[in-house]
Design goal:
- This protein is mainly alpha-helical.
- The chain contains eight helices and no strands.
- Helix 1 packs across helix 4 and helix 3 packs antiparallel against helix 8.
- The termini are far apart.
Length: about 240
Protein backbone atom coordinates (compact mmCIF):
# COMPACT_ATOMS: atom_id res chain seq x y z
CA UNK A 1 0.00 0.00 0.00
CA UNK A 2 2.92 2.34 0.61
CA UNK A 3 3.73 2.39 -3.12
CA UNK A 4 0.28 3.54 -4.16
CA UNK A 5 -0.20 7.07 -5.44
CA UNK A 6 -3.14 7.59 -3.13
CA UNK A 7 -4.59 5.63 -0.24
CA UNK A 8 -7.78 3.62 -0.29
CA UNK A 9 -10.37 3.43 2.43
CA UNK A 10 -8.94 1.15 5.12
CA UNK A 11 -12.28 -0.58 5.71
CA UNK A 12 -13.42 -1.17 2.12
CA UNK A 13 -10.06 -1.24 0.32
CA UNK A 14 -11.55 1.05 -2.32
CA UNK A 15 -10.93 4.63 -3.35
CA UNK A 16 -13.76 7.10 -2.98
CA UNK A 17 -14.91 8.87 -6.14
CA UNK A 18 -13.78 12.22 -4.77
CA UNK A 19 -10.32 10.78 -4.04
CA UNK A 20 -10.14 9.38 -7.56
CA UNK A 21 -11.02 12.77 -9.06
CA UNK A 22 -8.61 14.56 -6.72
CA UNK A 23 -5.71 12.34 -7.71
CA UNK A 24 -6.43 12.72 -11.41
CA UNK A 25 -6.57 16.51 -11.11
CA UNK A 26 -3.36 16.48 -9.07
CA UNK A 27 -1.64 14.52 -11.82
CA UNK A 28 -2.97 16.88 -14.48
CA UNK A 29 -1.68 19.83 -12.45
CA UNK A 30 1.68 18.16 -12.06
CA UNK A 31 1.90 17.46 -15.78
CA UNK A 32 1.02 21.04 -16.70
CA UNK A 33 3.50 22.37 -14.12
CA UNK A 34 6.32 20.18 -15.47
CA UNK A 35 5.57 21.34 -19.02
CA UNK A 36 5.46 24.98 -17.94
CA UNK A 37 8.78 24.79 -16.08
CA UNK A 38 10.52 23.03 -18.97
CA UNK A 39 9.12 25.52 -21.49
CA UNK A 40 10.13 28.52 -19.34
CA UNK A 41 13.67 27.25 -18.79
CA UNK A 42 14.10 26.36 -22.45
CA UNK A 43 12.92 29.77 -23.65
CA UNK A 44 15.01 31.53 -21.02
CA UNK A 45 18.27 29.65 -21.57
CA UNK A 46 18.10 28.48 -25.17
CA UNK A 47 16.07 31.12 -27.02
CA UNK A 48 18.68 31.46 -29.77
CA UNK A 49 18.84 27.71 -30.27
CA UNK A 50 15.06 27.53 -30.59
CA UNK A 51 15.11 30.32 -33.18
CA UNK A 52 17.84 28.51 -35.13
CA UNK A 53 15.88 25.25 -35.18
CA UNK A 54 12.73 27.06 -36.34
CA UNK A 55 14.55 28.73 -39.23
CA UNK A 56 17.02 26.07 -40.34
CA UNK A 57 16.04 22.69 -38.86
CA UNK A 58 12.25 22.48 -38.78
CA UNK A 59 12.53 18.70 -39.24
CA UNK A 60 13.41 18.53 -35.53
CA UNK A 61 9.76 19.38 -34.75
CA UNK A 62 8.51 16.40 -36.72
CA UNK A 63 10.91 14.12 -34.87
CA UNK A 64 9.68 15.48 -31.52
CA UNK A 65 6.03 14.99 -32.53
CA UNK A 66 6.73 11.39 -33.52
CA UNK A 67 8.44 10.74 -30.18
CA UNK A 68 5.49 12.29 -28.35
CA UNK A 69 3.00 10.10 -30.21
CA UNK A 70 5.06 7.02 -29.36
CA UNK A 71 5.07 8.04 -25.69
CA UNK A 72 1.30 8.60 -25.64
CA UNK A 73 0.74 5.22 -27.27
CA UNK A 74 3.08 3.63 -24.71
CA UNK A 75 1.69 5.32 -21.59
CA UNK A 76 -1.93 4.25 -22.09
CA UNK A 77 -1.40 0.44 -22.03
CA UNK A 78 1.11 0.79 -19.19
CA UNK A 79 -1.48 2.74 -17.20
CA UNK A 80 -4.25 0.24 -17.92
CA UNK A 81 -1.97 -2.59 -16.74
CA UNK A 82 -1.15 -0.51 -13.64
CA UNK A 83 2.55 -0.64 -14.46
CA UNK A 84 4.84 1.24 -12.03
CA UNK A 85 6.38 2.86 -15.13
CA UNK A 86 3.13 4.61 -16.09
CA UNK A 87 3.68 7.62 -13.83
CA UNK A 88 7.36 8.18 -14.81
CA UNK A 89 6.34 7.86 -18.47
CA UNK A 90 3.59 10.45 -17.96
CA UNK A 91 6.06 12.86 -16.35
CA UNK A 92 8.59 12.23 -19.14
CA UNK A 93 5.91 12.97 -21.73
CA UNK A 94 4.94 16.19 -19.91
CA UNK A 95 8.58 17.32 -19.89
CA UNK A 96 9.06 16.53 -23.58
CA UNK A 97 5.81 18.27 -24.46
CA UNK A 98 6.96 21.31 -22.51
CA UNK A 99 10.09 21.41 -24.66
CA UNK A 100 8.05 20.99 -27.85
CA UNK A 101 5.71 23.79 -26.74
CA UNK A 102 8.60 26.25 -26.77
CA UNK A 103 8.57 26.19 -30.58
CA UNK A 104 5.00 27.53 -30.45
CA UNK A 105 5.45 29.88 -27.50
CA UNK A 106 8.48 31.48 -29.16
CA UNK A 107 6.12 33.25 -31.56
CA UNK A 108 4.14 34.97 -28.79
CA UNK A 109 4.76 37.69 -26.25
CA UNK A 110 4.56 36.94 -22.54
CA UNK A 111 1.30 38.81 -21.94
CA UNK A 112 -0.52 36.82 -24.64
CA UNK A 113 0.80 33.56 -23.19
CA UNK A 114 -0.31 34.54 -19.67
CA UNK A 115 -3.79 35.63 -20.78
CA UNK A 116 -4.28 32.51 -22.92
CA UNK A 117 -3.20 30.30 -20.01
CA UNK A 118 -5.59 32.07 -17.61
CA UNK A 119 -8.49 31.68 -20.05
CA UNK A 120 -7.63 28.01 -20.57
CA UNK A 121 -7.46 27.35 -16.82
CA UNK A 122 -10.82 29.07 -16.28
CA UNK A 123 -12.49 27.13 -19.09
CA UNK A 124 -10.97 23.86 -17.92
CA UNK A 125 -12.27 24.42 -14.39
CA UNK A 126 -15.79 25.34 -15.56
CA UNK A 127 -16.03 22.50 -18.08
CA UNK A 128 -14.73 19.99 -15.53
CA UNK A 129 -17.49 21.00 -13.12
CA UNK A 130 -20.06 20.74 -15.93
CA UNK A 131 -18.83 17.28 -16.90
CA UNK A 132 -19.00 16.09 -13.31
CA UNK A 133 -22.41 17.53 -12.46
CA UNK A 134 -24.50 17.31 -15.62
CA UNK A 135 -27.17 14.62 -15.71
CA UNK A 136 -27.00 14.48 -19.49
CA UNK A 137 -25.10 11.61 -21.07
CA UNK A 138 -22.23 13.22 -23.00
CA UNK A 139 -21.15 10.03 -24.80
CA UNK A 140 -22.71 11.05 -28.11
CA UNK A 141 -21.23 14.53 -27.92
CA UNK A 142 -17.83 13.15 -26.98
CA UNK A 143 -17.76 10.79 -29.95
CA UNK A 144 -18.82 13.64 -32.23
CA UNK A 145 -16.01 15.83 -30.83
CA UNK A 146 -13.48 13.05 -31.43
CA UNK A 147 -14.68 12.58 -35.00
CA UNK A 148 -14.48 16.33 -35.49
CA UNK A 149 -10.91 16.29 -34.19
CA UNK A 150 -9.89 13.79 -36.87
CA UNK A 151 -11.39 16.08 -39.51
CA UNK A 152 -9.54 19.07 -38.07
CA UNK A 153 -6.24 17.17 -38.13
CA UNK A 154 -6.77 16.42 -41.82
CA UNK A 155 -7.62 20.08 -42.49
CA UNK A 156 -4.51 21.16 -40.58
CA UNK A 157 -2.31 18.93 -42.74
CA UNK A 158 -3.89 20.42 -45.86
CA UNK A 159 -3.31 23.93 -44.54
CA UNK A 160 0.41 23.22 -44.17
CA UNK A 161 0.51 23.41 -47.97
CA UNK A 162 -2.27 25.97 -48.49
CA UNK A 163 -0.95 28.35 -45.79
CA UNK A 164 -4.29 30.14 -45.39
CA UNK A 165 -4.47 32.44 -42.34
CA UNK A 166 -8.26 32.40 -42.54
CA UNK A 167 -8.33 28.62 -42.50
CA UNK A 168 -5.83 28.58 -39.63
CA UNK A 169 -8.08 30.90 -37.60
CA UNK A 170 -11.15 28.74 -38.30
CA UNK A 171 -9.24 25.59 -37.30
CA UNK A 172 -8.27 27.25 -34.01
CA UNK A 173 -11.90 28.17 -33.29
CA UNK A 174 -13.02 24.61 -34.03
CA UNK A 175 -10.26 23.21 -31.82
CA UNK A 176 -11.50 25.32 -28.90
CA UNK A 177 -14.99 23.89 -29.39
CA UNK A 178 -13.75 20.31 -29.78
CA UNK A 179 -11.46 20.28 -26.76
CA UNK A 180 -14.05 22.06 -24.63
CA UNK A 181 -16.41 19.20 -25.38
CA UNK A 182 -13.72 16.60 -24.73
CA UNK A 183 -12.89 18.12 -21.33
CA UNK A 184 -16.52 17.78 -20.22
CA UNK A 185 -16.80 14.27 -21.68
CA UNK A 186 -13.55 13.03 -20.14
CA UNK A 187 -14.66 14.28 -16.71
CA UNK A 188 -17.92 12.40 -17.03
CA UNK A 189 -16.01 9.29 -18.17
CA UNK A 190 -14.06 9.34 -14.91
CA UNK A 191 -17.22 8.78 -12.88
CA UNK A 192 -18.50 6.15 -15.31
CA UNK A 193 -15.21 4.30 -15.10
CA UNK A 194 -15.29 4.46 -11.31
CA UNK A 195 -18.79 2.97 -11.09
CA UNK A 196 -18.12 0.34 -13.77
CA UNK A 197 -15.12 -0.84 -11.72
CA UNK A 198 -17.26 -0.75 -8.56
CA UNK A 199 -14.70 1.55 -6.99
CA UNK A 200 -11.83 -0.85 -7.65
CA UNK A 201 -9.85 1.69 -9.66
CA UNK A 202 -6.07 1.58 -9.75
CA UNK A 203 -3.33 4.17 -9.81
CA UNK A 204 -2.84 3.29 -13.47
CA UNK A 205 -6.38 4.36 -14.33
CA UNK A 206 -5.70 7.68 -12.60
CA UNK A 207 -2.65 8.19 -14.81
CA UNK A 208 -4.59 7.20 -17.93
CA UNK A 209 -7.41 9.68 -17.28
CA UNK A 210 -4.92 12.36 -16.23
CA UNK A 211 -3.14 11.96 -19.58
CA UNK A 212 -6.42 12.48 -21.44
CA UNK A 213 -7.25 15.63 -19.48
CA UNK A 214 -3.67 16.91 -19.75
CA UNK A 215 -3.84 16.61 -23.55
CA UNK A 216 -7.24 18.35 -23.53
CA UNK A 217 -5.80 21.23 -21.48
CA UNK A 218 -2.63 21.68 -23.54
CA UNK A 219 -4.42 21.54 -26.89
CA UNK A 220 -7.09 23.98 -25.71
CA UNK A 221 -4.32 26.33 -24.57
CA UNK A 222 -2.54 26.12 -27.93
CA UNK A 223 -5.79 26.77 -29.82
CA UNK A 224 -6.58 29.84 -27.71
CA UNK A 225 -3.00 31.07 -28.10
CA UNK A 226 -3.24 30.73 -31.89
CA UNK A 227 -6.40 32.83 -31.83
CA UNK A 228 -4.45 35.48 -29.92
CA UNK A 229 -1.79 35.33 -32.62
CA UNK A 230 -4.33 36.10 -35.35
CA UNK A 231 -5.69 38.90 -33.16
CA UNK A 232 -2.23 40.47 -32.88
CA UNK A 233 -0.81 38.79 -29.79
CA UNK A 234 2.22 37.32 -31.54
CA UNK A 235 5.68 38.83 -31.52
CA UNK A 236 6.57 41.30 -34.24
Amino acid sequence: MDNQIFESNQQTGKFSLSDFYARIYALVGMGVAVSAVVAFLTLSLFAENIATILTTSSWVLFVLWIIEMVLVIAVTPMAIKNSPMALPAFIAFSALNGFTLTFTLAYFNLSSIAIAFAITAGMFFALSIFGRTTKRDLTGMGKAMFAGLIGIIIASVVNIFVRSSGMDFMISILLVIVFSGLIAWDNQKIEKLYHQANGNVTDGWAVSMALSLYLDFINLFIAILRIFGVAGGSKD
